[in-house]
Amino acid sequence: MGSRSYVPTLYPALVAGAALYLTKEDRLQLTVRNSVPGVTVRLTGRFLAAPDTEDDEPPHVQAIAQELTPASNRSSSTVLLPLGYGWLLNAEVIVTAGTPLVGQCYALLSLVRGDAGATLDLVTLAAGYITALERLATPGGSIVSALAGPGALRSIAGTTPGVGAEISESVPAGARWELLTFTAQFVTSATVATRNTLFAITDGVNALGRYPLNNNQAAGQTINFSVGPGIPLMSNEPQQGLAGTIPVGLTLPAGATFGTSTVSIQSGDQYSAIRYLVREWIEGA
Amino acid sequence: MTLTCLTCGGVYADVLPDGLLYFHACPPLSDSEVGVKLGLPADAATWSPVQRQQVAAYPRARSNHRDENRPGTRAIDHNQLKAAGQGVREVAS
């Protein structure tokens, strides 16, 4: 017999809602963007293989199983699975190692044509955050934006800057952060001057906001300050702690920075104990 | 591991307690660092109005700065840094 392929008609019909018929050129593609080290993702499913020729065995269901260890810096990790002629009956994606939270491991399952580097995206089957408990599935799954949902809460210790330098923290590539609270300590040297700290936000180049703390901090003082959305500026007793405000719902894209800009900062002044709480989503360009 | 940035002197942990990677980026120059570069007195309070204008006009981008963030989220960006700067040194524990 020749190598002509045929489509048996007694099996999943080619109608809307039926299993997806695939050709040899089609690939099941799993793309993952993840921020947590040690994560392994498993793609499983069932595929009803069609005979390639009339002499081949009757259609039979095969199990699909493919693992992917995604990068942990939010860059894309992809695996392509060629299945041959037949019907994709169902597929699902779940985390089998690691403990990512919602907001930290985003999976997108699609059908493409071609091989790595030269694929044509044909259809998105399902997309959303996955964890060890929350799966992505098709059919029946939905396509959920990576920016949807509650995000992941993260407490982050920032860089302690060099002496006389400012604080500057940046939103990493592939992330979107909502800044919920920020705290640091400022110790001034013996050099006589009145320092005033501003909480500065930039898009990475341009200033977006500068919010004064009015600390009026003299030489030889230690002040702990906290910044948060909607907090009124309070500085009656700065030695007991200082509170400053930033806009409510301050959401920053990758590359944006936040930190200090200090009027009359001296070369012996030192910021330290930098810690902040953010709500994080995966955001890919 | 705790690291010191050899460009800016910042100290940070490259892996945070929650296991996630931390990407250090050098801060822009502070007024006091600009004063040092311009050879001004250490005490900023003694700067003249002209010197203050010099400081205000000085470019704040740190030369040879380090930025450990990835240039993007494509697979080819996986092992790339935006800017390596002068590198890092491990802080003895």
Number of helices of chain A: 0
Biggest sheet of chain A: strands, sense, closure?
6 strands, mixed
Q: From the alpha carbons, calculate the radius of gyration of chain A and give it in angstroms.
A: 27 Å
Largest interface: A-B, 50 and 42 residues
Helix share bin of chain A: under 10%
SSE string of chain A = EEEEEEEEEEEEEEEEEEE
- Counted beta strands of chain B: 5
H-E string of chain B: EEHHEEE
Beta-strand content of chain B:
15-25%
Overall pLDDT level of chain B: 91
In short:
The complex is a heterodimer of chains A (285) and B (93). With 285 residues, chain A is an all-beta fold. Chain A has strands at residues 20-22, 26-34, 40-49, 60-68, 76-82, 86-97, 105-113, 120-129, 136-138, 152-157, 168-170, 175-187, 196-202, 207-212, 222-229, 242-246, 251-252, 257-263, 270-282.
Structure overview:
The complex is a heterodimer of chains A (285) and B (93). Chain A is built from no helices and 19 strands. Chain A has strands at residues 20-22, 26-34, 40-49, 60-68, 76-82, 86-97, 105-113, 120-129, 136-138, 152-157, 168-170, 175-187, 196-202, 207-212, 222-229, 242-246, 251-252, 257-263, 270-282. Chain B has 93 residues and is α+β, with helices and mostly antiparallel strands. In chain B, 17% of the residues lie in helices and 15% in strands. In chain B, strand 1 (2-5) and strand 2 form a beta hairpin. The N and C termini of chain B lie close together (9 Å). The chains are: A mainly beta (285), B alpha+beta (93).
Q: Which descriptors apply to this entry?
A:
heterodimer; A: 285 residues; mainly beta; six-stranded mixed beta sheet; five-stranded antiparallel beta sheet; 0% helix; B: 93 residues; alpha+beta; 5 strands; 15% strand; elongated
